[in-house]
Write a structure and sequence with these properties.
Length: 447
């Protein structure tokens, strides 16, 4: 049965758009002309041997139609056998184990090449999960990544080398690479802290070195994509050096730090300027905060967007925002004014993928509508037509103290198009499944 399935799969060579049939027909036409030329040799030279062969053929197949059919069928069969055998032999060196037959590899490649133009905006592990699934659907992917990261190896390279933080870009390149398993291990490899490289990851050092060689960070990303066989491209939301700042409610922080004050009433909206809000700068510090975030903003605020990011948004067939940390991964991209304007003007459907679990310090006790409210407060209403959320809530609690599932909202709070799917990763139920998420996103585009 499996043998017959392999044979039938070879019919994919005849699927429109494979770029094969035209060359096969040209191949056959050339051989037919070559055969006719060879057949004309006896007529031109007139050797007796050729005449005897033709006479013998006429005796075996007295009808001229049978003679022509025999020659054509035999010639075409030999050409096709030679063509497929030659291609299999030549391409076997370029086919990796587990990819299947050459026709299957080419078929999937052509299908992805004709796939829709998808722009994914975000950062962190959520964006990587989305990209990992999307690359199986289309090659026309543009990942727009935040540049506000200031922690760990990325933060140190940013301060010491003056480059944009490479961490999120490293993860996206690994996720979009054809050799993702090996690339993830290589790019995520972290040198020991007692070594001279002191805890840096290989991927961060690679991108930093590539930026020095090519002369710019964006050129480093483009060249890395070519070297590492990345499907799609990874670009920054801005080339400016920015810091992410937040206004965080101090009363909630005090209540959490002082148990005796936990039962005291807390003002829902402390007035700005009276000590009710604390300004915190730095993505890492914001993520570690325990107070309720009122708003986040960039310093400086009016930074120019990377032109390629604007072009990608305006030319997209589908725009996906999230999943990822709402205030420290998703919103920093949307706070770039030109990019936010392009997003509002884009004609493509815009989908916000809500997180699976709440994030203490950022979105504790948030439901789906709370996420949308925060987005609208920062970039205005009516930007997102569609919200995609998980509807599968198992009995397993998300990891981490204070974390819970992002619950579906009450119907009276929904003033947007809410689409719910089972998006749970069975192995890590607090995360999205890459394949399920990508398929759900593409279904929204096909609907």
């Amino acid at each position: 049965m499996e043998r017959w399935a392999r044979r039938w799969s070879r019919l994919k060579w005849l699927v429109p758009g494979m770029g094969v049939k035209r060359w096969v027909l040209l191949y056959i036409a050339g051989f037919i002309l070559l055969g006719l030329g060879i057949a004309a040799i006896p007529e031109a030279l007139g050797p007796a041997t050729w005449r005897r062969i033709l006479v013998y053929l006429r005796l075996l197949f007295p009808k001229p139609e049978l003679q022509v059919a025999l020659l054509l069928v035999t010639g075409v069969a030999l050409v096709l056998v030679a063509f497929f055998g030659l291609n299999r032999s030549l391409l076997s060196a370029f086919r990796r184990t587990g990819q299947g037959d050459v026709v299957d590899v080419l078929y999937r490649h052509r299908q992805r090449q004709r796939g829709p133009k998808v722009v994914a905006i975000g950062g962190g592990h959520g964006l990587n999960t989305l990209l990992r699934g999307l690359k199986e659907q289309t090659d026309n992917i543009t990942a727009i990544v935040t540049v506000a990261d200031d922690g760990g190896s990325s933060g140190r390279l940013r301060r010491e080398m003056g480059v944009l933080p490479p961490g999120d870009f490293r993860n996206c390149i690994a996720a979009l690479s054809d050799a993702e398993g090996l690339m993830t291990q290589l790019f995520q490899y972290r040198f020991s802290e007692d070594s001279g490289l002191d805890g840096h990851s290989f991927g961060n050092l690679y991108i930093t070195a590539m930026a020095a060689i090519t002369g710019s960070f964006e050129s480093a990303l483009a060249e890395s994509g070519r070297v590492l066989a990345v499907r799609g491209r990874v670009i920054p939301s801005t080339l400016a050096e920015v810091n992410l700042c937040a206004e965080i409610a101090q009363p909630l922080r005090a209540a959490l730090e002082a148990p005796e004050a936990a039962s005291a009433p807390v003002a829902a909206e402390p007035a700005p300027g009276d000590g009710g809000w604390e300004k915190v700068c730095g993505e890492t510090r914001i993520g570690e905060s325990v107070g309720r975030i009122r708003r986040v903003y960039l310093q400086p605020e009016n930074v120019p967007a990377y032109p390629e990011a604007i072009r990608a948004v305006l030319d997209a067939d589908l725009i996906v925002i999230g999943p990822g940390s709402l205030y420290t991964s998703v919103l920093p991209n949307l706070l770039v004014p030109d990019l936010a304007s392009a997003l509002a003007s884009a004609r493509a459907p815009k989908v916000y993928v809500c997180n699976m679990a709440t994030q203490p310090g950022e979105t504790g006790e948030y439901d789906v509508s709370d996420h949308i409210r925060a987005l609208r407060e920062h970039i205005g209403p009516d930007v997102f037509q569609i919200v995609l959320a998980n509807r599968n809530f198992s009995n397993i609690r998300p990891p981490g103290a204070g974390a819970d599932w992002v619950k579906l909202p009450r119907p009276d709070t929904v003033n947007y198009q809410l689409v719910t799917k089972d998006l749970v990763d069975r192995q890590y139920p607090w995360r999205h499944d890459s394949a399920k998420l990508a398929e759900a996103v593409m279904e929204l585009l096909r609907a």
